[in-house]
Specification:
Radius of gyration: 31 Å
Largest sheet: 2 strands, antiparallel
Strand order of the largest sheet: 1-2
Number of strands: 4
Structural class: mainly alpha
Oligomer: single chain
Distance between the termini: 89 Å
Order of helices and strands: HHEHHEHHEHHE
Strand content: under 5%
Helix content: 40-55%
Length: 185
């Protein structure tokens, strides 16, 4: 029995032909065995001439290398999708998807000083979540609430038993504004 030597170029052309066949948008109904010989010869001829960049004309995406996962080619840190989902998109389309940035998990009230703002923290954080931007702090002319005793915490000065806010938040408002905030129901 004779053993045939297959050149690396032929193997590359066959692999390229198979990967192009896999990316043609069909659901796998094409016969790989019948298309391999014709794609191998056309790929071998095509590899002799330079090819235009596969990503030309597309924005925010990178051509997927056939032997590397998209997550190995691009830094997807912070992308809310799983690696499997990202790599699946790359395998299905032949192009690595652009990185999607996840919305910040940090609440607006943790990013900016809203002491003295007449709105509740929930309202402020809701505005930030809905718009993607934290609202500007609003300062009322005179802080609402009771003037804070300098030597006493607001939670020791006023009964906040039915207030939904943590004691640390209430006391912080008192320290920053000099007024113990009104009790919120």
């Amino acid at each position: 029995m004779r053993t045939r030597k297959i050149s690396v170029l032929t193997l590359t052309a066959v692999a390229l032909g198979l990967s192009l066949t896999a990316c043609n948008g069909n659901d796998g109904t094409d016969s790989a065995s019948s298309s391999a010989p014709s794609s191998a010869s056309s790929s071998a001829a095509a590899s002799a001439t330079p090819q235009p960049d596969a990503t030309e004309g597309t924005s925010s995406s990178t051509a997927a290398k056939s032997d590397a996962k998209c997550t190995d080619q691009i830094n997807y840190a912070g992308d809310p999708r799983s690696n499997a989902e990202i790599n699946s998109i790359g395998a299905d389309t032949g192009t690595c998807p652009p990185v999607q940035k996840q919305g910040s998990d940090t609440k607006c009230t943790d990013q900016l000083d809203y002491a003295g703002d007449p709105r509740s923290n929930a309202e402020i954080n809701s505005i930030g979540a809905d718009t993607g931007t934290c609202p500007e702090p609003q300062k009322s002319a005179k802080p609402s609430g009771t003037p804070k005793d300098p030597d006493t915490k607001c939670t020791d000065q006023i009964n906040y038993a039915n207030d939904s806010r943590p004691n640390a938040e209430i006391n912080s408002i008192g320290e920053e504004t000099g007024y113990c905030p009104p009790v919120k129901k």
